[in-house]
Structures are given as structure tokens and as C-alpha cells.
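Fill in residues.
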């Protein structure tokens, strides 16, 4: 990321699709970009058919001219390897490259993403277009980064994929007996006697074997990673100093981003917050924190966001004035060094004609484009933030394998979901201005005063042991319901639960009991609160009972427990407390950990986060607020001094640098 921001400051730009426009528009684009402060554009994401109109025949002339034009205007190019949308000739000549769904139906071209990730031919053709692009543009002065594919997430159930799945399983299990054991195939007469019988989880009459499904998720994610690595290696061999990225989609279930993250040079994300939802600011913040986690604490790039409405929801609300700026600055506050958009100029044709852009259909003489320009200029004033970290003393653990294993058919309740649990625990920290890092289950936790595990249904022995060691070494741990339930084969860990954590928790359970309605609970001080959907029959094995169930069959039984273990403290939450109760819980565990928010007092709706020495305050609420600030500072966005407090209108942002730093 540093090589990109050095000399440029924060990156600002978007997807640029000049192939949709006559060349006379390009010149105008370049000038408008320069005027708006654009310094990075992503080119060629969907250009394969233009670049290779028939197998092996390349047409690079137009792209040469685009890249030259960008170089002349001082705009860096994030050049895409166009593998996300193969040309029709690929599927037409070689239908086996087209993906097949669970029901055995082949999906056609005419849209995008129509490829089988395991197709040898698709993989070969991907490598050949990547090689051709890398050879041609390796030394081009505009080239600043490579963008492989787009939003990886494709899945295919065809016979070639089945073969690749079997090869992957052989590698994992060695022999069929081990596979049969791991998949628990004595259940429902599923024992495999020949490798040829093993297939992907295709459409079947009833619930499919959960371990088969879990391995399928692992395999599919791995195939996409293998495809990414093939392109990356070609690019790295030719341009070792040019960073390589692919754009993520936040909490996207199909791809284990922890496995991808270390394989790329820059972590980038596409973010389209749901307009008007009360939890959107927190959810977006959480997604940004995930990206920072994926980037190992280093800056990341917001590759795509929208200036206004998207076109793919049922009813596409526009963003009110000031909203896209607020969202962009939220990403800066949480560690983004680049703020890019989909897309530069709104398309006249194609499936995304009604998607907002940086230059709308009405042209540059519009309020929207004026706001884009202004935002580009103001980002220059934040150049000093580039490269700065967002320090956090709290970690939240989130893992894809556990997510996959949890959210399958045939479980006690589908109301307990991985990302919802994570978000509900995150919200009270967000509201108090406590920064949180999102980390994987095998993370090094030693730097954190508090570790929250909202749900970890699947946990490996080593990760469970690390959580235990963390507490005994002095950490504060919070574990949410239905955690530690299965092992990496998705087999239930027998005995009182959560089996691998019950010692450190000083508590254990014997039944998971989904509830028919709201669950009445009571804190140790007597105050009542409500939980939802989920209860567990628990007992203390040494832990103090902090809250108990207050009604129904579980009345008087423990709901939340706290246990001193070694030098630390471990909490277990055996229900799904509502927002107020989670806020109280957050207060108590933060007190245990000795962690507080960046400000003592934060009005509702205001997000506060420190990046480097700059304190960002963002008003997501609908009213003007007065935010008390401890130290005098200068608002980098306006240049105005601030002392005692700042006043923020709805959607306003302050980026306060402490005054002492001026000296
Ligand atoms: C992204 C995608 C872009 C564009 C955008 C529209 O998911 O990467 O190509 O389709 O959505 O919101």
C-alpha cells in the first residue's frame, strides 16, 4: 500500500470502463479526473472480449491509448486481469468451461462470472490473457497495481469440479476409510467404497451430509484461491514491485478471506452499505475493521463504493447529499488508504445503466459530480493519515470455517447466525467509541486486553487451547452461545459443553434450548433484561453467576457466568441478550479489561475512532450534536481550530489533529 500512497497521499478514483465509450470521451474523462483529484483508476475488469476477440488474437491498441492517456494526466492505473467475465467464445466453443449449479443446470454467458473455477481450459485461458497483459504492460508508467478477477465467489458442481474435489479430498484424507470416518458415513448408509462415487453436494432429496458440505466450502474457496495465485505468480514474475490485489465483498460467505489475505499485497474491499438501516453505520464499521484485520493491521483499499443508489436492490434509495462523503471518511477513519468508486462514468447500456457513478448520465455539470470533486480535494488534506494504524485493545474472533459449519441445515435454530452474532456484540463497542480488531480463530491474542468470541461453533483443539492460555495469562475473554460445539470435522464434541473451553469458563452445559419467544433474564443486581431465541441449560463449575433466566422452565438457572482463571477472567453467555443487555455486558467486560472508549462521552449516533493521532468524529444521526473533546485540536477537513467541543450537523465529520502536534 505504501508504494501506492507515497507521493500520492490517499488514493481516490474508481472503476474506469472506457471500452463503453467512444475515444473522444476519454480525453474529457482524463481532464475531469484530474480536476477531481483522481489519482487511481481500475481499468479493464470486464474487457476480456475486447482484449482477445477470438482465441489467441489480441487487440491491445485501445488499452495502450487508455494507459498512455492516464500516464499523461498523472493518474495511476490498477490494471485488471479480466478473468471474471470470459468472452462468449470460451463458453460457446468449450461449454465445459461454463459453471453447473447444484441441480446440474449449466449457466450461460450473457451476464458475467460464467466460469467453472476448476475447468482446466478456463484456467489455461486465464493464464494466457494474464501473461499477455503482463508482458505488454510490465513497464508502462501508468501501471501501479494489478487487480485479479473481480469479487471471487464462483462455484461449480460439474464433473470436472467433482474430479478436482476428489483430488482435494485424497490430499486431505489419504484414503477412503479416513474420508468415511471424517464424513461420518455410517449415518444414512453413505459409506463410499470407490473414490468415483464421491461427488460434490449436488441437489439431493433431503439434508446433505454436513461434513461433505463443509469440505465442499473449503474446496471451493481453495479453488478460487488457486486461480488467484496462478495469475498473481505470473504477474509477480514479470513485475515483482507492482502490488497485486483482488477485491473482497466484506462478510462474503463463500470465500475464506483469511486464506486469501496473506496471498495478496494489498487488501481491497467493495462496500455497498444498505441505505437507511439503523445498524448500517455499525455494520459498515465492522466490515472495515474486518478489512484492517485481513490486512494484518495495515492500511487497506476501499476499491468500490457508490456515490448514490445502486441498481441491484429491489428498491434503490439514493444517498442524500453528504452521505457518500460520510461513508468514504468512515473508511479512512478505520484504516483505508484508498477511496474508490464503482464507477467513474455511468454506463449508457448494459445491466448497470441505473447504477450511480462519479460522473452521472447528466454529466459533470451536476450537484453529484461537484460533490465528487469536492471530496477528491478534501482527501488531499488528509494525506498525512495515509499509512497510519488504528490502535485497538479489543479483538473479536471470526472464522469462515465456523461460519460454514454453523449455518447449515439441520441445527437447533437458524436464528443464531455467525455474522449477526458478531454484529450484535460489536454494536455496543462501536457506540462507545472502543476500537475493535477482527481477528481469525488462530490469531496471536497477546496484544489484546479483551477478546470477544461472539460465536465459534467449530473450534480446533489448538485454537481452544490458545483461548484458554490467553485467559490464564491475564486476558479477559467473552464467549457467546453455541460455541465450541463441533471439531474441524463438524462432529459434535461430546460431554458437557463447550467441551474444549469449559475448564477456563468454569461453567458447562447439557442442553441447547431454542426459545419460542422473548426470554426473561435478570442481572445479579436484580435488573431485568430480555434475550431472544436461544437458551442453554448451564451450571456453574466455579464461575459466578452474573445473570440468570427469570422465567419458564429455566427460571433461576444461570444465563451469563464469569470465572477467574489463572491471571484472567472468562465470561460465558448462554443466550442471545438484546441490545441493552449487550451494552451492559460490554460495560462490565471492558471494566474487567481496563479498556475505555476514545472519548468519555459520546452522543448517540456519533462514531469516534482514532487513526494515528487523528480523532475522527462522524455524525450518523439525524440531529446536530455537540461532542465534548478532551484536547484542543485542528480539524484537518476545514482547517478550523476546535476546543472544548465540536458541533456536528447530520452527516458531518471532523478529523481532529491534536494541537500539540502542530509545534
Ligand atoms: C460490484 C462489482 C462491480 C459492479 C458493482 C455494482 O459487486 O464488482 O463490477 O457490478 O458491484 O454495485
Amino acid at each position: 500500500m505504501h508504494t501506492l500512497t507515497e507521493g500520492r497521499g490517499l488514493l481516490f478514483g474508481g472503476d474506469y470502463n472506457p471500452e463503453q465509450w467512444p475515444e473522444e470521451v476519454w480525453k474529457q474523462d482524463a481532464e475531469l479526473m484530474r480536476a477531481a483529484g483522481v489519482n487511481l483508476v481500475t481499468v479493464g475488469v470486464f474487457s476480456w472480449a475486447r482484449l482477445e476477440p477470438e482465441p489467441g488474437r489480441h487487440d491491445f491498441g485501445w488499452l495502450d491509448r487508455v494507459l498512455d492517456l492516464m500516464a499523461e494526466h498523472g493518474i495511476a492505473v490498477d490494471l485488471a486481469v479480466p478473468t471474471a467475465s470470459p468472452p462468449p467464445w470460451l463458453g460457446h466453443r468449450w461449454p465445459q468451461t461454463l459453471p453447473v449449479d447444484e441441480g446440474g443446470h449449466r449457466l450461460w454467458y450473457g451476464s458475467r462470472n460464467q466460469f467453472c473455477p476448476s475447468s482446466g481450459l478456463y484456467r489455461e485461458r486465464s493464464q494466457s490473457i494474464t501473461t499477455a497483459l503482463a508482458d505488454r504492460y510490465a513497464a508502462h508508467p501508468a501501471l501501479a497495481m494489478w487487480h485479479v478477477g473481480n469479487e471471487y465467489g464462483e462455484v461449480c458442481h460439474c464433473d470436472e469440479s467433482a474430479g478436482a474435489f476428489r483430488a482435494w479430498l485424497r490430499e486431505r484424507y489419504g484414503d477412503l476409510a479416513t474420508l468415511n470416518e471424517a464424513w461420518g458415513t455410517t449415518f444414512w448408509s453413505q459409506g463410499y467404497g470407490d473414490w468415483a462415487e464421491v461427488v460434490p453436494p449436488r441437489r439431493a432429496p433431503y439434508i446433505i451430509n454436513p461434513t461433505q458440505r463443509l469440505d465442499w466450502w473449503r474446496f471451493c474457496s481453495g479453488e478460487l484461491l488457486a486461480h488467484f495465485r496462478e495469475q498473481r505468480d505470473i504477474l509477480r514474475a514479470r513485475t515483482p514491485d507492482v502490488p497485486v490485489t483482488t477485491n473482497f465483498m466484506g462478510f462474503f460467505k463463500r470465500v475464506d478471506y483469511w486464506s486469501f489475505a496473506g496471498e495478496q499485497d494489498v487488501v481491497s474491499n467493495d462496500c455497498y452499505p444498505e441505505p437507511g438501516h439503523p445498524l448500517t453505520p455499525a455494520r459498515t464499521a465492522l466490515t472495515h475493521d474486518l478489512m484492517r484485520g485481513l490486512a494484518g493491521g495495515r492500511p487497506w483499499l476501499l476499491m468500490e463504493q457508490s456515490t448514490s443508489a445502486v441498481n441491484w436492490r429491489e428498491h434503490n434509495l439514493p444517498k442524500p447529499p453528504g452521505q457518500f462523503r460520510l461513508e468514504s471518511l468512515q473508511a479512512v477513519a478505520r484504516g483505508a488508504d484508498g477511496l474508490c468508486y464503482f464507477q467513474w462514468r455511468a454506463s449508457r447500456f448494459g445491466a448497470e445503466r441505473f447504477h450511480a457513478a462519479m460522473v452521472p448520465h447528466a454529466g459533470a455539470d451536476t450537484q453529484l459530480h461537484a460533490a465528487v470533486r469536492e471530496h477528491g480535494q478534501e482527501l488531499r488534506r488528509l494525506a498525512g493519515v495515509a499509512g497510519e494504524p488504528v490502535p485497538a485493545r479489543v479483538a473479536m474472533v471470526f472464522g469462515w470455517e465456523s461460519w460454514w459449519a454453523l449455518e447449515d441445515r439441520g441445527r437447533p435454530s437458524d436464528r443464531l447466525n455467525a455474522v449477526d452474532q458478531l454484529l450484535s456484540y460489536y454494536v455496543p463497542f462501536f457506540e462507545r467509541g472502543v476500537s475493535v480488531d477482527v481477528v481469525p480463530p488462530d490469531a496471536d491474542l497477546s496484544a489484546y486486553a479483551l477478546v470477544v468470541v461472539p460465536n465459534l461453533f467449530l473450534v480446533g483443539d489448538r485454537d481452544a487451547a490458545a483461548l484458554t492460555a490467553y485467559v490464564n495469562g491475564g486476558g479477559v475473554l467473552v464467549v457467546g452461545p453455541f460455541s465450541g460445539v463441533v471439531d474441524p470435522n463438524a462432529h459434535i464434541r461430546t460431554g458437557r459443553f463447550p467441551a474444549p473451553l469449559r475448564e477456563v469458563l468454569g461453567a458447562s452445559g447439557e442442553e441447547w434450548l431454542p426459545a419460542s419467544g422473548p426470554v426473561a433474564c435478570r442481572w445479579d443486581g436484580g435488573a431485568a433484561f430480555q434475550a431472544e431465541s436461544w437458551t442453554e441449560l448451564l451450571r456453574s463449575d466455579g464461575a459466578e453467576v452474573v445473570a440468570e433466566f427469570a422465567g419458564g422452565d429455566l427460571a433461576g438457572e444461570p444465563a451469563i457466568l464469569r470465572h477467574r482463571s489463572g491471571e484472567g477472567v472468562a465470561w460465558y453467555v448462554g443466550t442471545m441478550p438484546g441490545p441493552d443487555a449487550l451494552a451492559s455486558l460490554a460495560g462490565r467486560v471492558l471494566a474487567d479489561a481496563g479498556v475505555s472508549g476514545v472519548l468519555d462521552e459520546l452522543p448517540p449516533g456519533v462514531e469516534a475512532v482514532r487513526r494515528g493521532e487523528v480523532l475522527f468524529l462522524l455524525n450518523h444521526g439525524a440531529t446536530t450534536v455537540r461532542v465534548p473533546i478532551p484536547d484542543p485540536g485542528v480539524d484537518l477537513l476545514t482547517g478550523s481550530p476546535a476546543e472544548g467541543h465540536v458541533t456536528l450537523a447530520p452527516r458531518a465529520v471532523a478529523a481532529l489533529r491534536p494541537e500539540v502536534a502542530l509545534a
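Residues 150-151, 270, 272, 304, 310, 342, 352, 355 surround beta-D-galactopyranose (CB under 6 Å).
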